[in-house]
Amino acid sequence: MIYLNRVFLAGKIKEGPEIRYTPQGKGVMFLTLQFPSETLDGVEIPHEDVTVRVVALAEEGEWEGIGEGANLLVEGGIIQRRWEDEEGVRRRLEVIAHKITPL
Questions:
Q1: Using one digit for the tens of pLDDT, what is the confidence trace for 86-101?
Q2: Which is it for strands 27-35 and 7-21: parallel, antiparallel or unpaired?
Q3: Which of 27, 44, 26 is nearest to 36 (CA)?
Q4: CA distance 28 to 60
Q5: Where are the domains of the chain?
Q6: CB atoms within 10 A of CB 27
Q7: Could you tell me which of 74, 59, 56, 68 has the C-alpha nearest to residue 26?
Q8: Residue 22 Cα distances to 59, 67, 82, 93, 95, angstroms
Q9: pTM, whole model, 2 decimals?
Q10: What is the pLDDT of residues 14-39, one digit of tens each?
Q11: How far apart are the C-alpha atoms of 46 and 62, rounded to whole Å?
């Protein structure tokens, strides 16, 4: 059996980018992409806007000038994070970006 974990997303930045640094000094960028309602044969399918958290390695100053509202194309893979909060276990799907291209 062959498995493929690859996604391509084109959306606009809703939140971020926020850059944090690992103890080794590597930059890690976090942002949230937003996607508006879909249409099918010209008919809008009502739903809440979809948001996806994206994580990527970032070099110093690499994403200066890119902010909320900017359009991006993201290529990467999906991971699931799990943590326990006061209400029990929570989960979130995230995209680990291998390539990000401003549109």
A1: 777 777 889 999 999 9
A2: antiparallel
A3: 44
A4: 10
A5: 7-102
A6: 16
A7: 59
A8: 12, 22, 20, 21, 19
A9: 0.79
A10: 987 888 999 998 889 999 999 876 66
A11: 36
| CA–CA separation, 3 and 56 (whole Å) | 22
Q: What is the pLDDT of residue 5?
A: 94
**Tokens 């509202």, residue located:** 69
**Length in residues, the chain:** 103
Secondary structure letter of residue 71 according to DSSP: E
- Residue 33: both structure tokens together: 């992409």
Residue 95: closest CA among 20, 61, 81: 81
- Dist CA 10 CA 16 (whole Å): 16
For residue 95, count other CB atoms closer than 10 A to its CB: 20
Which CATH fold topology does 7-102 show? OB fold (Dihydrolipoamide Acetyltransferase, E2P) (2.40.50)
Q: Is 30 exposed, middle or buried (0-12, 13-18, 19+ CB in 10 A)?
A: middle
pLDDT grade, residue 2 (50/70/90)? very high
